[in-house]
Amino acid sequence: MLPEYPIQVWLCAVAAVVIMGVAKAGFGGGIGLIATPLLALVLPVSDAAALMLPLLIACDGFALNHYIKSFDSRSIKRLLPGALVGISVGTFFFKFFGNHEQILRVGLGGLALLFVAYQIGRNSLHTVINKYQPRTAEGVLMGVLSGFTSTIAHAGAPPVIIYLLPQNLPRAQFVGTTVVFFALLNLIKLPPYWALGLFHSDIFKMTVLLSPLAYIGVRLGVFLNKQFSDLWFNRVVYGLLVLTALQLITNKLFFFDLF
User: Fold this and answer.
1) Contact 185, 178 (CB under 8 A)
2) Rounded CA gap, 74 and 236, in Å?
3) Rounded CA gap, 91 and 87, in Å?
4) Helix, strand, coil percent values for the chain (each to nearest 5)
5) pLDDT, averaged in runs of 10, over the chain (259 residues)
6) Torsion of CA 224, 227, 233, 236, to 10 degrees
7) Alpha carbons within 13 A on the beta-carbon side of 194
8) 105, 170, 182, 210: which has the fewest C-beta neighbours closer than 10 Å?
9) What is the pTM of this model?
10) How many separate helices (H) and strands (E) can be counted in the chain?
C-alpha cells in the first residue's frame, strides 16, 4: 500500500531526489543540499533527513566505483574521528529537539542560509585558507562540523572542502576523497538514525518508489552539464534554497497555499 501523502509532499520529494541526482552528476557548489530543506517544507525534518539517507547511500555506491582508488587516506584519517563526534552531537540534537519541530525547522533553515553565505563568499575564503597548510587539529575540527551538519541536513561538504583545498590535491584525488569520506559518513549515520526511530514503513516505501528518479536525475545532470554553465544553474538553485530556508524559518508555505 502506497504512503498516503498530499500532492505537495510527492512534488517536493520528486524535485528533491532529481536535484540530488543532478548534483551527483557533477554540478559544483553542493546543490544537493537543497533536497533536505525542500522536503522539510512538507514533512517533519526527521522524516526528510531519513528519506534522503538511503538514497544518498545508493548514489555513494555508484560514485565509489569510479573513485575508490583515488583518495587521500591521510585526510580521511584526520577527518573521520571528528566526524564521529559531530554525528554524536547531531544525534543528540535530534533526540533532544525531536519533539520541537519548529526548532528543527529553524535550525535547518539557518544551516541552509549559512551554506548560501559560504557559497557567496567562498572565493575570498578560499584565498585566505589556501595560505595555510592544515594540520591534524584542523582536520578533526572540520570533521566535527561536517559530521554535525551532515547528520542534521546532509550538508557536510563545506567544512571538508575548506580542509581539503589548501592541500592542492589532484582533481581526481580531491573528488575521490570527498566521495569516500561521505560514503563512510552516510553509512555511519545509519545506526543513529535507526536508534532514533527515524526510519518507518512509509519512509522505506517512498525510498523504493523514488530510487529510479535518482538515476533520472543523474542523466539529467549529464545533459544539463552540456547545455548550461555551473554558474547560472547554481544561482537558480541557491535562490530557491534561500526561499526554502526563509519558509522553514517563518513557517509560511507561500506557494503551497495554492494546493
Assistant:
1) no
2) 36
3) 6
4) 80, 0, 20
5) 74 84 63 78 86 85 77 92 95 80 78 78 64 76 91 84 83 83 93 90 85 80 66 69 77 50
6) -100
7) 8
8) 170
9) 0.78
10) 10, 0
